[in-house]
Amino acid sequence: MNNVITIIGKNSNLYRCLDMSILKDNFNLVELSHKDVNELELIYNPVIFSYSKNIYENAEFMKIVLSKVRGKIIYISSIATLIVNSLKTYNYPNVKYKAEEFILSDKNNLVLRIGIVEDLINVESHYHGEIKVSNCRDITLAIKNGFTNENMVGIQYATSKKLIRGNLIFRFIYAFQTLTLKVSPILFFFFRPLDFVYKMFGYYNYGYTFLANKF
Question: pTM score, two decimals?
Fold first, then answer.
């Protein structure tokens, strides 16, 4: 079953934007929703997309997959995990980081960290500064390479850096964020209520996303 890839999370927005022709030309695809996992005895070469924002539910799901897997696991993670060692106050990075730990308990598995997906959001309109971006074609190619290259294991990135010049408001927000982060990551977190204001202005480079782009 080495030529089989099992997609877990077929309904995710990210999976829907991937270029499936790249994979279908090389593998037989089995597409599952997360709830289908419990009905299977064996899962071959799974690619796991986001499951739950609850760290315990997510961990239990990873345990179930690990107990049934045959072959290599590729887990689609996030650059958000870069902040965990410096600041553990955000839920999403912790959830993804814990899932990474489960997947990497087998040294033959692959964690693929991605950035802001340009195919899903207009980064030019909503960001300022140097950001880590990904696109759906590169993510698909990374998945393909993960299964064709046995040495592609551990933590890998499907990202590139992009410098964006936002409007005057965005530049002011970015400067304020940079200043508070320079004083203390904890102080930066205390200003979290301002994230709602930033979003009202259409500015999305805030919270753990801003931190991950900085680290």
Answer: 0.90
